[in-house]
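Hey, I was hoping to borrow your eyes for a little while. I'm sending you its amino acid sequence along with the backbone structure tokens. Take your time with it, there's no hurry, and the full record follows here.
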Amino acid sequence: MTTIIIEDEKPAARLLQRKLEKIDVKVDIMLHSVEESIAWFSTNKHPDLIFLDIQLSDGLSFEIFEKVAIKSAIIFTTAYDEYALRAFKLNSIDYLLKPIDEDDLEIAVSKFKTNLPKYETALQLDFEQIKMMLQNPFEKNFKTRFTVKIGQQLKVILTEEIECFFSENKGTYIHTLDNRNYLIDSTLEILEQDLDSKNFFRISRKFIIPLKSIKEIVMYSNSRLKVILPTYKEDEVIVSREKVQEFKNWIG
């Protein structure tokens, strides 16, 4: 079985490669742009399986298939929310929502291997339909407030009041601009889907921060970045190495 990854973020591609190696899937090549992928597919035998990111640095990955007839099975690796993902279900395409869960990855690969005979002919996928649905998905209503319990009372916290979200001892907390912490019934993984990504970014396994709360950014060890927030001082707020470039693009 030959496998390739098409992903513009090289750290994300390497992370996926390591996860695949854990389940005995060898990645033969990694491509990082529409242009590079078109050139490769034009001169090489098509692989059995492609792990495909949607948004590449030079355009949507669907542009590859406008130039080259792909005869490979495709598993999408995407950050698009659940509303846009209905497009993939309509076309019977497997997908993995970022950040990729290792169990979900193993299930997707197992599904591919089980149904390998049906992928021996060219896939007839309506990429134009998928593109349209991604460009105009159902409106996503992002959370603008959170309700927390304080004793016998409920308190409403607006997103404008939030300095960061953080996880600690298996709990998830809101830290507000008035330097208070509130335990919430959620996880950072769920919050990533509930918050507007234009305003909030998950910088590590421990923190999600809003753009407006960034007071200062300084260089840190091992090619990482340290974020200074207005009041949060309980721990260093570090952008993990694999998130640095994506973080720079977000703040830019």
Observations:
- The first strand starts at residue 3 and ends at 6.
- The radius of gyration is 20 Å.
